[in-house]
Design a protein that fits this description.
mainly alpha
Length: 86
Amino acid sequence: MNQLKHEAELFKAGLAAAMKYAEDRGAVVFEKTDSASEKLLYVYRLLVHDKKIAPLPEAQVAEKALRHRIAMWYAHQLPKDHPLLK
């Protein structure tokens, strides 16, 4: 798993984008009391279900791997000249 240069920022923005996608799709309404881990797992499963990202083998589904997968997904959504990709 290759570390992205701005992975933390990409993950944070990616999680927000994935949550917006899930809510716009009408699949979920996130509550303020939902933990970041719960949100992460939910949006990961939804993106896999919608075939937006490839699934990880079930044995490799861990928070660190999911954070990286969301960051990679979001990085691919950005234009090539975006500051987070430099």
